[in-house]
Design a protein that fits this description.
Elements lengths: L5 E4 L5 H11 L7 H9 L9 E6 L2 E13 L2 E11 L8 H15 L4 E4 L16 H9 L3 E12 L8 H9 L2 E5 L5 H11 L4 H9 L5 E6 L2 E8 L9 E6 L8 H15 L4 E4 L5 H8 L2 E12 L5
Parallel strand pairs: 4-5
Antiparallel strand pairs: 1-2, 2-3, 3-4, 5-12, 6-11, 6-12, 7-8, 8-9, 9-10
Helix pairs in contact: 1-2, 6-7
Bound molecules: coenzyme A.
Coenzyme A binds next to strand 4, helix 3 and helix 4.
Amino acid sequence: MKQPFIIKTGWPEHPEEVARFLDRNFDFDRMTTALLEEKLFADPQADPGLCFSAYHGEVLAGFLFAVRRDIRGEAFGYVKLMAVEKAHRRKGIGTALYLAAEESLVAKGATKIRIYDVPLNYFMPGIDPRYTPALCLAWKMGFTQFGESVNMVADLTSYDWSTEKEEKILQSKGIEVRRARKEDKDALFGLLEEEWLLWQNEAGMALKNDPPSAHIALKNGRIKAFSLHNANNKGTGWFGPMGTHADMRGLGVGSILLKRCLKDMREEGHRTAIIPWVAPVAFYAHFVDARIERVFWRNEKEVLLGK
Ligand SMILES: CC(C)(COP(=O)(O)OP(=O)(O)OC[C@H]1O[C@@H](n2cnc3c(N)ncnc32)[C@H](O)[C@@H]1OP(=O)(O)O)[C@@H](O)C(=O)NCCC(=O)NCCS
């Protein structure tokens, strides 16, 4: 029997067509051409050999983009984006796209595959369980859930986010807080290298903005803490990441840096800030009244080399 669709590998000729396709097939997310281009082409390991489009005749019926990364000594493959046109679901297109991606990821050395929670540049930090068919497909393909992540949301309209008073107190303790400059890159990357290597990509993206969408705290001229926004998922009101060096914690530096970013975001016209892939839920709930807005299930599959 003739296969009702074919799968093409490579960058889409018309990213705007793929963006519209994803936008109408994601029930809980929006997609724009600019955002799609950031997800595909601004990925530090963007590989057209891991970009798959399913066509039903001339019509785009499915799309999957994956990346291959070594993370903390492990060889991961990640599905970063995936959707099938509503009218063409349950015809095996999702399975065919996934299997094409898995084969290529294994050929490129991946030993574990995860879905969506891609460090460095990601769309969402796991599968939102309301995309239940995606979970069913993942489990059928041999994935198992190993964890959960959450996105929080902060209402930017409820405070003015000014931090001048608190900053004066820090100043009296020899701590300077200011917006990061492009020339702070090496020093900021140095701090990240110690504890948060995986965040260098987002820091680099934030420093490229004009003005840089990053704030830092310095003691004796050394950067000891940072916060940033509008790096991953640019233009969507995406905060983070942020971090304070262990020897500066508990002084209020983190909350000031967080509020500085929220103030920027409000001034850019956002009404809410998404605080994604959160670990310290209580910190954000306490300082900026953030609430858990979405939950994501993290799924993983071990794949055998040379399978
Ligand atoms: C997830 C998605 C890509 C699946 O695409 P698809 O082409 O319909 O998938 P397939 O036809 O290959 O289905 C494969 C298997 O997945 C499971 N599955 C898919 N849809 C399902 C559903 N609605 N209910 C239960 N199981 C489902 C089944 O086990 C199915 O096998 P079967 O039809 O033999 O029972 C599609 O539903 C989609 O685009 N959803 C919206 C976007 C999305 O969720 N993206 C991923 C976000 S993490």
